[in-house]
Amino acid sequence: MRKRVLIVGGGTAGWLTAGYLAKRLGADLPDGVAITLVESRDIGVLGVGEGTFPTIRRTLATIGIDEAELVRRCGATFKQGAKFVHWRHAPGQGATDHYSHPFQVADASDGLDLLPYWLLGHGGAENWDEVSNPQKKAADRQRAPKLPTNPDYVGPLNYAFHFDAIALAGLLREQAIKNGVRHLTDTVNEVLLAEDGAIAGVRTEQNGVLDADLYVDCTGFRAELIGKAMKVPFRSCRDVLFCNRAIAAQLPYARPSDPIASYTISTAQESGWIWDIGLDRRRGIGHVYSSDHTDDEAAERVLRGYLGAAGADADVRHFKFEAGYREVNWVKNCVAVGLSSGFFEPLEATGIAFAEVSAGMIANLFPWGGDYETSARQFNANLLRRYERALDFIKLHYCISERRDTAFWRDNVADASVPDSLLEMLDRWRFRPPNELDIDGQIDIFTEASWQYVLYGMGWKTDLSAKAGALRYHEDARRAFAEVRRQAEYAIANLPSNRDLVEYAQTRRFGG
Ligand code: FAD
């Protein structure tokens, strides 16, 4: 008999999981897994989540989404990382007002690790993000990461996307149905539990009781299955990450030909930060803040100040969230994916990335033999560790700031709000930079390159004076830095602009 999966919820997480599992578990094959997704017409999707992580390319390719169609249908643009403004110093209080976290990893030219040489000053006056790889300079000039002739999801520079979240859910829905997913529009109003605590079925308003072998909870913050029915506790991380509110707006470009930024611009504010994401016809801009450090009215004023005169009449949407996650996300025959599982905050776009990771693990650990406990144990251990590690990485952006101008920043740098695991890593990196031994390849979303970009972008000091005498490839390093500069010039001269590539995709497929 065919195994059956029921996904409850049709936001980004639900449709991404459905389309992905349909491909990996053969929903369109007679003996593959039958997948049904039920989504409520009355309960909306969150509708934000416009920034992604490079893993999205492989996920979308697996689901079968054509890249040019993604651009056309979802207003998608090419994202090459994040630019952080005023995170290190408050405006006007320090020479350095921005740094980048590009997706491209540092160029290990001929295996030579360039970072120690940069720390010793061989990179000249340039920062690590610009001297280690060509991407930052190319993105600063709004270059795209790929050429029109590159095949789908491939480019000389590493990238992800910005897109309209609602349009994406629509495109994912269409493709998931093509991949064999059965779609029901209905509201689940009761979750039925068996005696052993497993889910026996879900009662819907119009389709009666639906049952399955595995239930995937993609009901967003409502967490109808994993939280309300199965009572799995949620672990708040508010003591570490203070932001718990967001106000979002959309702003059209002044002119249709305006350049499209090729990274998410994250500008620190007195009690949070503002994201600025360039889509094809509009920007998505939002203020993320801590309600313990400011109030909604003041936060909206800050957002409107950022939007300027052009945004004076812009509609805004308010969001409430609590940074945190469930330590257990797979219980018996129920597994949570998306906001029902956890969410930190929009910084570094981990929301959709975690949904991708979870969908991938469900496919890899699918309990074909009916052994749910073994799959659940492995899934839970892996995801928990990922959450803990991502929490440290996000907190890093705040806790090494030199800002002391407001209570928000003073509280953020206080050791009491920094996890011990992060304090320990920072301790290691006083005398050596992060390297692969600090990273677990099976777990970490962020590699040592990401940690390095943020640490050194924020002015972290690693004292290499004791090691300096053991370094011998000084000239090679200088040549390698010069080569990165040359590559950046080449990229700027030869890659199309972000807008030109988006325009290209309106009428043609990539790789032609
Ligand atoms: P939702 O979008 O809330 O979808 C829930 C679904 O469940 C809906 O279809 C609803 O109808 C259905 N549902 C609920 N209850 C029932 C029921 N009883 N019966 C039937 N159906 C039901 N992530 C990123 O990766 N990048 C970002 O830049 C980013 N920015 C964000 C900014 C903010 C302010 C916030 C709050 C989040 C952001 N996220 C971001 C997270 C991202 O929005 C989510 O990861 C993503 O939207 C997935 O949401 P979801 O599908 O889990 O939930």
TrEMBL record:
Record bears the keyword Flavoprotein: yes
Alphabetized UniProt keyword annotations: FAD, Flavoprotein, Nucleotide-binding
Membrane-spanning parts: none
Positions contributing to L-tryptophan binding: E348
Keyword Flavoprotein in annotation: yes
Residues the entry annotates as binding 7-chloro-L-tryptophan: K79
Pfam families: Trp_halogenase
Active site, per annotation: K79
Residues reported in the UniProt entry to bind FAD: G10, G11, T12, A13, V188, L339, I352
InterPro entries xref list: FAD/NAD-bd_sf, Flavin-dep_Halogenase_NPB, Flavin_halogenase, Trp_halogen
Gene Ontology molecular function terms on file: monooxygenase activity; nucleotide binding
Protein name: Tryptophan 7-halogenase
Organism: Sphingomonas glacialis
Organism taxonomic ancestry: Bacteria, Pseudomonadati, Pseudomonadota, Alphaproteobacteria, Sphingomonadales
